[in-house]
Amino acid sequence: MGQSQEQSAPLSLRARNISINSENAIHNDEGARALGYAGGLVSGVTVYGYMVQPVVNRFGAGWLERNATRVAFFKPVYDGDPLTIHAETPLEDGGRRMIVTAAKAGGEHVARMETEMCSSAPGRDSPAVRDASPADGERPPFDWEAVVVGKPFRPLKWSPIEGENRKWCESVMDDSPIYGSDTPAPLHPSWILQQANNAISHQFRMNPWLHVSSRIVTRRVLRVGEDVTIEAVPLEKWEKRGNRYALLGVTISASGEPVLHIRHKAILQVAKPE
Hints:
With 274 residues, this protein is α+β, with helices and mostly antiparallel strands. The protein has helices at residues 29-33, 44-59, 61-65, 162-171, 189-203, and strands at 5-7, 11-14, 67-73, 82-90, 97-104, 109-117, 156-158, 210-218, 228-240, 243-254, 257-269. The chain has 5 helices and 11 strands, in the order E-E-H-H-H-E-E-E-E-E-H-H-E-E-E-E.
C-alpha cells in the first residue's frame, strides 16, 4: 500500500502576544481575566501566521497567488505557550492540499487549518459590498442592535508599506525569503487576515471580542504599495450560551479589483463568567 500523506517537519516555537497593546482588551491580562481566561490571549491571526509557514515553504508563490483556506481556533493560546505546528499533505488528490494543526505541549490542539493551492482563480465566496456608510466620523461604542444583517460596515482604506510588512513577518517569526524576493513584496497572509479584524474595530469601539474562524479565498497575490479597500457586511448573527456571534462577509480589493473574499466568524460580545 502506498503512502497516503506526506509529513512536513514540525515547526516548534513559543507564542508571542503581539496584540497586547491593541484596542481589543481580550489580549491584555485585565480584560481577559475579567472573562475567565488565565491572561491576555494570543490572537487567532497570530496563530494563523505560524500555521501558514509550512504551507508557503512547500507551495511557494503559487499558494500566495491562489488558494482556498479554512482555519478555526479552538482553545486559548497565551504568551510564551510552546506550540508545535504539524503539517501533512494528502497525496490522493495530487498533493495540492495541506492540513495544518497547532498544538500545545501535551498535544492539546488549539487550531486547525485546511488549505488548497488552486490551479485557477477561485470563485467569489463573499458578497460584493455596496452602499456602505461613510468612512469618516467618530466610531460609536459597540451595539449589538447596530449589527444588522445585510447592512455594510464602513469601508476601510489600507496602504501597506514595505517596512510594516517586514515588521509583521518578524512579529510572527516568519523569516521566509519569499516576502522580500520580489519588488514589490507579497504581503504576509496573516497581515492580510488581520484586516478583517480591523474592519470590525473600524466600525465600532469594541469591548473584548474573539475571532473564531475564517474561510479565505485568495484570487491573486496582494503586494506592498497597493491601494487596498476592506469592505465588510454581516451575513448572519446569533446568540449561543450568552455569547453574541456574527459571520461577516469581507471583500479585500486592490485598484477596484476583488482580491480576497473572507467569511469571518467572531464572538462580538463575549459572555462574562457567572
